[in-house]
Amino acid sequence: MILVAKPKLVDPITCQEALMSLIPCRPFLTGGASTPIPQCCLAVANINAAATTPTTRRDLCRCFKKAGPGASVVPDKANQLPRLCGVRVIVPIDLTVNCGL
User: Which residues form the signal peptide (predicted)?
Assistant: First the structure.
């Protein structure tokens, strides 16, 4: 008898992991800095690369929508972040976006 184990799919990145990795972006996202620092852009690129499934992207979208206002994120700054970092994201970073994907 051969036993074949099918690996359980795990989200590549959790909400908490994504929020923690975006700490270098805080000065930009809250309006204290005019441009994001390289560590911030690296975090954005890494999160984008880890969001490989529709479910993960939806969950991260909901996570960012929920966390943004409490963290004093300026919506326009959040919207600008991917472009300024040169990262093409599938879902725009916008508090009004539908995360249903």
Answer: none
pLDDT digits (tens, 9 = 90+) for 4-26: 444 445 557 899 999 999 999 99
Domain 19-85 has CATH 1.10.110.10: yes
Q: Give the domain ranges of the chain.
A: 19-85
In contact, 56 and 64? CB cutoff 8 Å: no
C-alpha gyration radius of the chain: 15
pTM for the full predicted model: 0.82
The pLDDT tens digits of the residues spanning 23-62 come to: 999 999 999 999 999 999 999 999 999 998 999 999 999 9
Q: Where are the alpha helices (DSSP H) in 35-74?
A: 38-50, 54-70
Picking from 95, 99, 101, 94, the residue whose alpha carbon sits closest to that of residue 79 is 94
